[in-house]
Write a structure and sequence with these properties.
By secondary structure, this protein is an all-alpha fold. Helix 6 packs across helix 7. The N terminus is likely disordered.
Length: 191
């Protein structure tokens, strides 16, 4: 029986990647060096962002570190390195939301509420004012709170807030305006 040679393929043969196994910093997307520089430059601001959405330092640090880990793992998908910070901010906001959801679930599962811990600074005027602001912020709708935190505490522009939260600039303005009005009413009621 004669052996028939296979027909030559019309598709070109794959060219082996010269960088296969090369350093990750040579691949497309955000480089490890750029992410490292972003970490050094923006760690504290991202920590501050998380602190405004959460209420304890350990959770804030965990959220920011987890955000950097996730963006590092997905850095090849961040095609434009200048958007790395935007991805990090969005990840911090999302992880903060998740942490708050876990806390709410944990509180629902507790049989009795946790006792309040009194601190030495409890009587200080600044602490009372901060507590009143935090209480008033917690009374806002979720989107209003997120817009106000990003806009005024993280010092982001309306366009940056819109990109971070996936909203239009008009929606950011509306949530911000309504949030400030609700915050003003809540703070006056506490006074």
């Amino acid at each position: 029986m004669p052996v028939i040679a296979p027909m030559p393929s019309t598709r070109p043969a794959p060219v082996p990647d010269q960088h296969e196994g090369a350093d990750d910093s040579m691949t497309a997307g955000t480089t490890v060096d750029h992410l490292t520089e972003t970490y050094r430059a923006h760690y504290r601001s991202l920590l501050g962002l998380a602190a405004l959405l959460l209420d304890d330092t350990a959770s804030c640090e965990d959220v920011v570190q987890e955000a950097f880990i996730r963006v590092h793992a997905a850095r090849k998908r961040v095609r434009e390195p200048e958007k790395t910070l935007a991805y990090l901010r969005q990840t911090v906001v999302n992880l903060s939301r998740s942490a708050l959801r876990r806390r709410i679930l944990g509180l629902k599962l507790l049989s009795k509420p946790m006792p309040d811990m009194a601190s030495a600074e409890e009587g200080a005027y600044d602490q009372l004012e901060r507590d009143a602001l935090i209480k008033a912020m917690r009374g806002l709708q979720r989107r209003q709170r997120e817009v106000l935190v990003l806009r005024y505490f993280a010092d982001m522009t309306e366009a940056q807030v819109a990109e971070t939260l996936g909203l239009s600039v008009g929606s950011v303005k509306a949530y911000g305006s309504r949030g400030i009005a609700a915050l003003r009413v809540a703070m006056e009621a506490q006074a």
